[in-house]
Amino acid sequence: MYTQPHPESDATKVFVVNANDIGPGEGGGSGGTADPEIITILGAGAAANTANYPASGSVKRSTDITVTYGSSTAATTGTFTTFLVDVNDRESVLPGIRNNISIAQVTSANVGDVVDYTIPAGCKLRIKYSAPSGGGTLSIKGVV
Fold first, then answer.
1. Secondary structure, 3-state, the chain
2. Whose CA is closest to 36, among 70, 64, 60?
3. CA distances from 63 to 18, 35, 39, 89 (A)
4. Within 10 Å of residue 28's Cβ, how many Cβ atoms?
5. What is the pLDDT of residue 6?
6. C-alpha 84: how far from its chain's center?
7. CA end-to-end span of the chain, whole Å?
8. How far apart are CA 136 and CA 142, in angstroms?
9. pLDDT by residue for the chain (144 residues), tens digit each?
10. Rounded distance, CA 54 to CA 121, Å?
11. How does strand 108-110 pair with strand 79-85?
């Protein structure tokens, strides 16, 4: 519910807004009722490298993303370090909130971790990852 002054008097109009009726750009935080979108940030990393979200450019508005760090086999391990890249292409360490094992603020994650990040408008998420060990490849998926 929100209020707005009546333009022709001292009275105030009261509006009741159903959160399900709020669309993108209308103050609904993450954009109303859009279904979560699953994205692949890294399909199969076989050597140490870097992956970005979005792959090119930057996010248009502040974006919450839940990232799952995975591997192609149960024996494969790897380490992932996250950075925020600003409009000047400068990196700064980006902490996230790990949601599995024990909830904690982290700047580095391992295979199997699920971590929430917020990417400010005009920036992108950069994930640097180690070469996988134990056979197999690394993968990174996100939900926005």
1. CEEEECCCCCCEEEECCCHHHCCCCCCCCCCCCCCCCEEEEEEEECCCEEEEECCCCCCCCCEEEEEEEEECCCCCECEEEEEEECCCCCEEECCEEECCCCCEEECEEECCCEEEEEECCCCEEEEEECCCECCCCEEEEEEC
2. 64
3. 22, 14, 13, 18
4. 16
5. 46
6. 11
7. 26
8. 20
9. 444 444 454 444 444 434 444 344 444 444 456 789 999 999 999 999 999 999 999 999 999 999 999 999 999 999 999 999 999 999 999 999 999 988 999 999 999 999 999 999 999 999 999 999 999 999 999 999
10. 12
11. antiparallel
Beta pairing partners, 14: 3
Query: Is residue 108 a contact partner of residue 80, using CB atoms and an 8 Å limit?
Result: yes
Amino acid in the structure at residue 99: N
Tokens of 136: 């197999």
Quote the tokens at residue 108. 């580095």
Single-letter code of the amino acid located at 44: A
Vertex 49 angle, CA 74 and 91, to 5°: 120
